Amino acid sequence: MRRTAVALTAVVLAMSTLSGCGSLQSSATEVGGQRMSDSRPVRDGGTLTVALNADPDKLDPTLAQTLVGRTVFAGMCEKLYDVNEQGKVVPQLATELPKVSKDGRTVTFDVRKDAKFSDGTKLNADAVVTSLLRHRDLAGSARATELTPLKSAKATGPYGVELTLKQPYVPLTAVLADRSGMVMSPAALKKYGKSFTNHPSCVGPYRFVERVGGDRIVVAKDPNYYDAKDVHLDKVIYKPIPDGSVRLANLRSGDVQVGDQMVPVDVKSALTDNKLRLFNSPSLGYQGIGINVGNVKGLGQAPGKVDTAMAKDVRVREAFELAIDRDLINKVAFQGMYEPACGPMSPASAIAPGVKSSQCPKRDVPKAKRLLKAAGVKGAVHVELKIPTTPEWSRIGQVIQAMVKDAGFALTLRPTEYATMLEETDNGQYQAFQSGWSGRLDPDGNIASFLQTKGAMNAYGLGNPEIDELIKRGRTESDPAARDKIYAELIHKVNAEHTLIYLYRQKNYVVTGKDVAGLRVFGDGLVRVKDAGYVK
């Protein structure tokens, strides 16, 4: 099995050396171009408050879909494998990288013998099997598409696991380095059932304490954790604060110590404050606009008919995309600190280098108007776009609204609380919405769940047999050159549907108080708090 590795640099920017605001590039001094690590000694004790840009969805690894949720899981739910600061997959709860048979259909590995769940029960092979099958089979599972190739799983001993695959599956190790690889306590799953999200129990440096919806999620150091002696903090509080300027104000006042997913305008402001530090890494994900072309019954269901101009004719969707200027969005909304995107794969990805370098199409209003005319459109095309209730998406929405008006679209913006938007769009209750993804090491993780017919997170209702076949081929092909060609063709087919319109690629900006040490932020965008604490 070919393992995907990505060289991702996360740089600590030393703000105390800065003078003036300027651009990020000219104002920030990189500390020797180091990877994001902090060797300062850390004292034991204390509480760290992490400000998130949204309230996480369900605290159930099988059902969860959000990046902010992944950040919370990073503190309390370890995985079979993890991603290190070089972007390589490394063992976490597994003791080694998986062994794969010659035919690619049998995968074996062992798990740690010294690990316990937060409820005190032991981690073993049976627990791994229980979690993997739940991820694959539970109704509404967001992991189902990732684990479709898994035919069976069994324990070969107390700590040995054997997976049988329907066909070779190249992305498997990367998949098990994310939520599909999170192992949950079978005792807690049996005890709480559907309420597991309110009582999550995994192996991790911190255990779940409480959640107050919209206000905070609290975790505390877990004495059952196998590496508890090296965990410094007593508690971590995750606090949703959607407005970046408010997150920054809380950082400056000391009410929070870490600000996650800080936006460029606030990053530039933070650069002038010698009490703050900035962590910066490239992103594997994307942000864009999703169009409902067939979601009438919810996720995982066969596509149906949606009675809108955008859904009925691909030329209308293409016209909408051609009316958008990605470079201008980046300049106006993000001060040029993000990157325009027109596909699911990040330049940081080591996969398919021949694909990621392609140029995004430029704005072409005359062509957009011709397409609408050819589609028989008369009058303005009315479209409602659901966006998060954040200042940055208010700006982006207004910019897009003005752009597409020139081509003949009447765009209405509907700001919607994030969790509500997620639920409504999953159920197909929308025309268009802000659709983003934090990204995965293997390109399959950025494509299959969203764009495969009846994919676990295909909120768009897209169904295209040619795309399905290319996804299947990309999953089984281990030769890099051949895989490159498959993904080049796949991305061409995806873009031709104009169902998921990719707009920009974020960078991961995390701001902390200067006395916070040991924090880790890699290319996957997660804020890792296992080693975090306060400087001695």
Number of strands: 25
Structural class: alpha+beta
**Strands of the biggest beta sheet: in what spatial order?**
1-14-21-13-3-12-11-10
Uncertain stretches of 5 or more adjacent residues: 1-35
Helix content: 25-40%
> What is the global morphology?
globular
Largest sheet: 8 strands, mixed
The average pLDDT is 89
Number of helices: 17
Query: Cα distance, first to last residue?
Result: 44 Å
Portion of residues in beta strands equals 15-25%
Radius of gyration: 23 Å
Compact overview of the structure:
With 536 residues, the chain is of the alpha+beta class.
Please tell me about this protein's structure:
With 536 residues, the protein is of the alpha+beta class. Helix content is 29%, strand content 22%. The protein is built from 17 helices and 25 strands. The chain has an 8-stranded mixed beta sheet with strand order 1-14-21-13-3-12-11-10, sandwiched between helices. Helix 13 (391-405) links the parallel strand 17 (381-388) and strand 18. The protein is globular, with a radius of gyration of 23 Å. The model is unreliable at 1-35 (pLDDT under 50).
